[in-house]
Amino acid sequence: MFGPFQSAKPAIRTQSVAPSASTTTWSASAIVMYPAIVPPDLTIAEAAAPPAVIRAVVGALAIGAVLLFPALIYLFRVFKGSREE
User: Fold this and answer.
1) Stated pTM of the model
2) Residues 38, 69: one domain?
3) Integer Cα distance of 35 and 48 in angstroms
4) Using CA atoms, how far apart are residues 43 and 57, in angstroms rounded to an integer?
């Protein structure tokens, strides 16, 4: 075997190649069907939400991030902080 996986163990090679294979498959199917999601009835433009809904979802995600990330940082510091023995 040649390339970056030459010295890797077989399990590691498989674990690193499998995600790229599935991503390639999904990407190829999306490219082939573009712009249809369900040919020929539903296109990407027809499936899109109205702009007001998209703004509401983006706003909710921003508010959620403002609440979530400080809590995660706090929890990380509490449980992964320096250990004094």
Assistant:
1) 0.52
2) no
3) 12
4) 21
